């Protein structure tokens, strides 16, 4: 995914790969600093159909399933990295955007409309996506100017 990020993101974005999280044993696959904010990306190559759905007919709580297995914990894990990254940045005005990106995902038929319109799912403010949609989100305009992107990326 690293090469794909370099090929699809706007010029000036800073891409950091395989970064440790202070105070934990966790790592972050990719951190991207762009005008849209700081993106924490966990990339997955999991087999099976990807579905974001309710667990019951009348349920309102949605879960992430991959190959029939509940993978919502992966979404929660990336969400839990927002605070440590914010602490490292030390600037509450910088938006931090977590994302779980499936490299070769088998998206369910129910997701076809979202794929066509490039609207990934969100759970706990974590984007659940395919690469093309995340690249588009990262490339959106945002609150950071070019100097802020460079400064934060160097930090």
Structure commentary:
With 155 residues, the chain is an alpha/beta fold. The protein has one domain (2-154): 3-Layer(aba) Sandwich (Trna Endonuclease, Chain: A, domain 1), CATH 3.40.1350. It has 6 helices and 10 strands; from the N terminus they run H-E-E-E-E-E-E-H-H-E-E-H-E-E-H-H. Strand 5 (62-66) and strand 6 (69-70) form a beta hairpin.
- By secondary-structure content and strand pairing, the structural class works out as alpha/beta
SS field, number of helical segments = 6
Total beta strand runs: 10
Helix content: 25-40%
The total tally of domains equals 1
CATH class: Alpha Beta
Taken in chain order, the helices and strands follow as: HEEEEEEHHEEHEEHH
Strand ordering within the main sheet? 1-2-3-7-10-9
Judging by the overall fold, what is the CATH architecture? 3-Layer(aba) Sandwich
Task: Offer a concise description of the structure.
The chain has 155 residues and is of the alpha/beta class. 29% of the residues lie in helices and 34% in strands.
């Amino acid at each position: 995914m690293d090469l794909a990020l370099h090929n699809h993101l706007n010029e000036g974005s800073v891409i950091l790969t395989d970064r440790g999280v202070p105070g934990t044993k966790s790592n972050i696959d990719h951190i991207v600093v762009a005008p849209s904010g700081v993106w924490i990306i966990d990339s997955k190559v999991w087999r099976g159909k990807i579905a974001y759905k309710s667990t019951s007919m009348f349920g309102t709580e949605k879960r992430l399933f991959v190959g029939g297995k509940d993978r919502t914990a992966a979404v929660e894990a990336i969400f839990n990295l927002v605070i440590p990254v914010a602490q490292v940045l030390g600037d509450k005005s910088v938006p931090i955007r977590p994302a779980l990106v499936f490299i070769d995902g088998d998206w369910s038929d129910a997701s076809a409309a979202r794929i066509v319109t490039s609207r990934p799912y969100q759970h706990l403010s974590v984007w659940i996506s395919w690469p093309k949609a995340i690249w588009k989100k990262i490339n959106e305009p945002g609150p950071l100017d070019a100097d802020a992107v460079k400064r934060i990326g160097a930090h």
